[in-house]
Description:
The protein is built from 13 helices and 19 strands.
Amino acid sequence: MTSIETDVLILGGGPAGLWAAVSAAAEGARVVLVDKSRCGSNGPTVYGSTTLWDIPPGRSRTEAVDRALRGGGGLGDEAWLHRMVDETHRRLRVWSGIRHRGPDGADGDPPVARLDGASYLRRLRRGALEAGVRILDHHPALQLLADPAGTIVGAAGVQRHNKFRPWTIRAGAVVVATGGCAFLSGGAGTEVNTGEGLLMAAEAGAELSGMEFSSAYGLAPVLAKVHPNPAVAPGLSVRFAALYDDGGRELAGGYPAALTALADGRRVFAALHEVPDTVRHWLSRHGAVDAVGRVPVRAVLTGTVAGAGGLALTGTDCATTVRGLFAAGAVAGREVVFGAAGPTGGPRGAWALSSGTWAGAGAAAFALDAGRADDARPVPGGGLGPHAHLDPRAVIGLVQEHTLPLRRSYRRSAGSLRDSIAELDSIWPAARYELGGIGAGQVRARQAAALLAVARWAGYSALVRTESRGIHRRVDHPEPAVGWQVGQRCGGLDTVWVRRCVAAAELTASRPATV
Ligand SMILES: Cc1cc2nc3c(=O)[nH]c(=O)nc-3n(C[C@H](O)[C@H](O)[C@H](O)COP(=O)(O)OP(=O)(O)OC[C@H]3O[C@@H](n4cnc5c(N)ncnc54)[C@H](O)[C@@H]3O)c2cc1C
């Protein structure tokens, strides 16, 4: 058993976790960051180029915020958006890693900083090490530690590269930055986004927000030859400029029109000449190009990674509803900035940077202020038993059947949601108590339990919101409803609950209504 003491523990080393680590260290805290893979070498950002909104004060900033508020169906918060844009712009001005800035809104789009994703993460990792952050790669976190009052005081997990020996890290505060949950759909880099951070936090009593906005889809080429290592799939992160129907007519509505066509059972294609040379060769090699030189595409669920659902935030320091626990990046509820939308590119990068910065500083302030509790116990959780009585693949298969298809998450109805909830609920007790194992088996069991928990929160939340807004689409309620201009909270494990927030900026929890 490896035991470490620190001030701030960061779980997850994507862009949000790395910005959080640097920010906490800048406040004078001792910081340890654990990642289940190699920090800075995985996750969706590592594939292709990444963009971050980088908008100076002035008209373009006001216009970008207004557009984001409209796109979010009126659920976003103007003050949070302005704060996010301002923090990102100020940080990027002094950060040495910027390679290329987009034109300052000349084409009507907000200005962005464009970076190669892999170099961006490498540079952030180097910056964190230079700031004194201790980075522990291949250290999946499996559960949180809490003191008798329920305050989070660390986490525990295993070391992948060291025969799965256990580790325990005691900390004054913990930042969860484990990314969103994409249900192992095959989207580039999302194989690490399996929801354990959400599950660990919920087991400690954390609430979630906006989980009905977890139905974001992207497009990926249909591959005739599947690569033996699905992580090596640069083609999957391509954003196609133009899309066509079977008859060669361009789909004027872009991605939404393509998803509608695919949901209707029609075929959609991207033109090969529009993708960069390196990607074109890769697509040809993998059998993604048809006889007439087009690339057939399919819908890929990006879930909460590109949606807005996640851990509910209670303040501008990105504290969650559990004392001592902070959230950053795609694991955090982003309704406050994106509302009901699943934005692409720039805003998401800005959120990872700014929420990481705030969560790191918030956790450092909390840790340096709080006294250290003597007693720390692991928070019990699903799938952590020593024996494997249930195959995680069975659980994951069921979860995918009820989340990945467009008919389940893109076109929802009360009937399909009730059906999914009933199936997923029926396997929960077995998943909670009979998933388990040791070593790699324990890590897989925990992932399966997390995927199931996230699918249930998303399904329950989508059933309660009887309207269509942003990326939440109900075929039985196809329009936005006036009374629904509010957010939702949810949580619970054996019994999932959902309740409306009385106001979008509601900060405290009241008695939940059970669905
Ligand atoms: C197809 C696609 C394209 C995208 N393109 C862009 C873009 O162009 N620009 C942009 O800004 N954003 C883009 N995004 C969104 C991007 O994913 C997020 O902005 C960003 O990755 C969020 O960063 P994060 O640090 O919160 O999470 P992630 O980048 O997902 O990082 C999470 C980290 O946590 C680790 N982790 C997970 N679970 C555990 C655990 N139990 N214990 C320890 N470590 C754990 C993972 O290994 C990973 O390193 C895209 C997303 C998708 C799906």
